Amino acid sequence: MPISKTKVAVIGNGFVGASAAYAMAIKGLAAEMVLIDVNKEKSYGEALDINHGISLLSGMKIYSGDYSDCKDCDVIVITAGVNRKPGETRLDLAKKNASIMKDITSSVMKYYTKGIVLIVSNPVDVLTYKFQEWSGLPAKKVIGSGTLLDTSRFKFHLGEKLGVDANDVNAYIIGEHGDSQIPLWSHATIGGMKLDDYCSLYNIPMGEEEKKAIAEEVKQAGATVIKSKGATYYAIALSINKIVEAVLKDQNAVLPLGNVIKEGPYGLKNVALSMPSIINSEGIERMIELKLNDEEIKFLNNSAQQISNILKELENI
Q1: Which strand (E) or helix (H) includes residue 34?
Q2: What single string gives the DSSP state of each residue in 294-313?
Q3: Measured by CB atoms within 10 angstroms of the end CB, which terminus of the chain is less buried, N or C?
Q4: Tens digit of pLDDT for each residue in 54-69?
Q5: What span, in angstroms and rounded, lies between the C-alpha atoms of 8 and 11?
Q6: How many folded domains does the chain comprise?
Q7: 146 and 177 Cβ atoms separated by less than 8 Å
Q8: In angstroms, rounded to a whole number, what is the distance separating the alpha carbons of residues 126 and 309?
Q9: The domain spanning residue 214 has which CATH number?
Q10: Distance between CA 12 and CA 40 in Å, rounded?
Q11: What digits encode the pLDDT tens for the residues 12-21?
């Protein structure tokens, strides 16, 4: 049965938003879920499609609505935006989706009364920062899906390489959800054993070339899926599902999520990016300050700079 008296809104009902709504319905995460989209017929159809199978699942109330339905939501998930077109730069995409996000922010805040806002729209780190800035909400209340999907991909590919279940791989991607993401090799473990020790013990090749190949595979994972089927949506939908569950169940889960950092560790300042963080019903409880080596700190600051460069270009939006 769904968690009593909980309400979730999903803004943007394209492939990602609709898949996320479907995943949450299967798990019965909330008592009530509203789908909101600029295309009202689309949101109506998606809600109706899920409702036609709801008797086989939970007792969730699922319906299409508008921004006024954001009132009293425990989680507001925002997936709305346009996709990057061939020949467009990341900055081009950022400008388009930042304009869309500013309108969404204004519309949401007219009715916002409580809850966590989860940003999924890309570029997610930039839009997480801008939503928090425009909304004035506490930073802990505005969360980006960040590198949770990248981390899941990382664990999958490591598991494939090592011949172990991805659930038994403990590893993180941090920084930007994008080209400057950082795989934390120094903190990767298998069954509690450091990755390098595990590979050495069982004679599994895991040198710099192997690590570089896996990191590149993870970085290009989205493009690989898009080339094969046109879009990615199932894995990010499951990521959204995991984050919403952590909030609604007050889990104190440790997940690599995007959050606005005004002044933080590792020299980070005025940026939004991902680090392993404790998340519960209040949002981001705290970032876990891992002991990073000099190279990882260097890469993390480079990642932050890439995000900051785009933020500077969006100051006048």
Answers
A1: strand 30-36
A2: HHHHHHHHHHHHHHHHHHHH
A3: N
A4: 999 978 999 999 999 9
A5: 10
A6: 2
A7: yes
A8: 10
A9: 3.90.110.10
A10: 10
A11: 999 999 999 9
Q: What CATH number does the domain containing 59 carry?
A: 3.40.50.720
User: 83 with 125: CB under 8 angstroms?
Assistant: no
- Side chain identity, residue 175: G
111 vs 76: CA distance, rounded Å: 11
- Do 131 and 164 sit in the same domain of this protein? no
Helices 40-51 and 15-27: angle between axes, nearest 10 degrees: 30
Amino acid type, 141:
K
Taking only the tens place, the pLDDT of each residue in 221-275 is 999 999 999 999 999 999 999 999 999 999 999 999 999 999 999 999 999 999 9
Last residue of a domain, one of 97, 119, 144: 144
Q: How far apart are CA 112 and CA 122, in angstroms?
A: 22
- DSSP summary character for residue 192: T
The answer to whether 243 and 143 are in contact (CB under 8 A) is yes
| Phi–psi pair at 188, nearest 5 degrees | -75, 130
Two tokens, residue 165: 């279940």
The answer to whether 304 and 259 have CB atoms below 8 angstroms apart is no
- What pLDDT score does 83 carry? 83
The residues carrying an active-site annotation are 177
